[in-house]
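FAQ: What does the model actually see?

It sees only this:
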Amino acid sequence: MVDVFTEIIINRSIEKVSEYAADPDHAPFWYVNIHSAEWHTPKPMRIGSQIAFKAQFLGRELAYIYEIRDYIPGEKLVMETANGPFPMETTYTWEALDQERTRMTLRNKGIPSGFSKILTPFLSLSMKSANKKDLLKIKNLLEESSSI
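And it is asked to produce this:
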């Protein structure tokens, strides 16, 4: 099983951080490996919404559809996919530390199958590294931009 947990403190309000991070249209701007996000269901986001992502990971092009399983604005977002190299659940949480600091967590977990199963330890390390880069990128975007 792959279970990767990362977190970061972002010097912006919980409203700014959660609204930006929860919007799939922003994913290509802060996820290092995601190239595009396309809605397969009408906006706005709600439980059951489906978004198709295209990404590159470990030198491979990936296309997968996430379905929103749980969404509490300003608190938590849980997305799940059953297709791709292995089923994956991604969870974001946000916690206000004060009015201008937010702890954001990013957790990916799934059970690789087939050839991917052999690579589980490597996948975990690679995902942890990518997640750290993603959280650092969203931190920098939100802290450096006054328009977000």
